[in-house]
């Protein structure tokens, strides 16, 4: 595990330049940062980085092992596929692609070539989630009865924001709704089904702005209620109600490295108490996990293929149920 992974970035999205590239540069024992590709270098002001003109120009380089892709959703399928065909491991922003069939195809290709294809839900590597799972597994709040999660943003100031653009794969489901769907699987298992859903569209923009769904275990009685959206009051929470208590946190998806998460834990025996957790850097954790998947055995790769496909299937189900209603 002492090999350096030579990695490049396709695109100069804010999440890449603010949160991922600086960490890649800091993990010098694991990664060698090759550069960032952009279609128009004249608009990029990062003098400390090697800027490559054009995405093809970067993935054509022979000194590359992996890529990170923070492009708009509608561009994921094309560039993930091209990267995999070049023999590159891929870390891609969520959602992995715009529909279930595309996601299946990409994962089958990654499996055929024995390459890592990882969807960047970095929150799942935060130590906060590990603590929550330990509390639930240890029965602190008794048996799980209800899971609720909401992820909503206030309006974006720029109406040309990629999240509002249908042609770029915008919409609240793929951007915000994907998070509580993924969290539901992490806590209730991947064998879930969407029994009801709602999506509300902006007719002028042509994209879904807010919605929600009810997800239930296929072979069990547990369920989750999720809500998500743009142009809403900010919400980023998880609530788990058990037979003997309740757990709540209000920064489950976006706990930055300098943020100290707080769990609100209420039980019959001890009443309400606040549990202050350690701050953590889930972007760093995810990059280390990506590195481990590349240089480790194939077990993690297989698990991630299943994760990607089950996530895309639930998003498709949610959309279908919403249309039916």
From TrEMBL:
Which segments of the protein form a coiled coil according to its record? Answer: none
Question: Pfam families, per this entry?
Answer: GFO_IDH_MocA (PF01408), GFO_IDH_MocA_C3 (PF22725)
Family under the similarity heading: Belongs to the Gfo/Idh/MocA family.
Official protein name in the record: Gfo/Idh/MocA family oxidoreductase
SUPFAM superfamilies registered for this protein in UniProt: Glyceraldehyde-3-phosphate dehydrogenase-like, C-terminal domain, NAD(P)-binding Rossmann-fold domains
Q: Which UniProt keywords apply?
A: Oxidoreductase
User: Looking at the record's lineage, which domain of life comes first?
Assistant: Bacteria
- Every Gfo/Idh/MocA-like oxidoreductase N-terminal domain range: 5-120
Identify the residues that the record assigns to the GFO/IDH/MocA-like oxidoreductase domain, covering every copy.
130-247
């Amino acid at each position: 595990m002492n090999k350096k992974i030579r990695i490049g970035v396709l695109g100069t999205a804010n999440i890449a330049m603010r949160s991922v590239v600086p960490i890649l540069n800091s993990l010098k024992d694991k990664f060698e940062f090759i550069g960032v590709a952009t279609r128009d270098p004249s608009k990029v002001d990062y003098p400390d980085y090697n800027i490559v003109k054009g995405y093809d120009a970067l993935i054509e380089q022979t000194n590359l092992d992996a890529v990170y892709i923070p492009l708009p959703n509608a561009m994921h399928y094309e560039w993930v596929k091209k990267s995999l065909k070049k023999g590159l491991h891929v870390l891609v922003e969520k959602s992995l692609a715009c529909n279930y069939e595309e996601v299946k195809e990409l994962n089958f290709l990654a499996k055929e070539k024995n390459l890592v294809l990882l969807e960047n839900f970095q929150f799942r590597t935060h130590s906060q989630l590990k603590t929550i799972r330990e509390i639930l597994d240890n029965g602190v709040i008794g048996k799980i009865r209800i899971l609720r999660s909401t992820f909503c943003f206030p309006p974006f100031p720029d109406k040309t924001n990629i999240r509002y653009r249908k042609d770029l794969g915008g919409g609240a489901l793929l951007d915000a709704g994907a998070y509580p769907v993924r969290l539901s699987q992490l806590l209730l298992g991947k064998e879930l089904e969407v029994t009801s859903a709602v999506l509300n569209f902006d007719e002028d923009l042509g994209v879904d702005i807010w919605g929600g769904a009810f997800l239930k275990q296929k072979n069990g009685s547990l369920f989750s209620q999720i809500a998500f959206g743009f142009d809403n009051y900010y919400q980023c929470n998880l609530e788990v109600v058990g037979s003997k208590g309740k757990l709540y946190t209000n920064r489950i998806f976006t706990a930055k490295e300098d943020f100290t998460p707080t769990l609100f834990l209420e039980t019959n025996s001890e009443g309400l108490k606040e549990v202050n957790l350690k701050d953590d850097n889930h972007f760093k954790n995810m990059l280390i996990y990506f590195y481990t998947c590349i240089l480790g055995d194939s077990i993690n790769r297989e698990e991630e293929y299943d994760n990607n496909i089950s996530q895309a299937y639930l998003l498709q189900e949610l959309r279908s149920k919403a249309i039916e209603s």
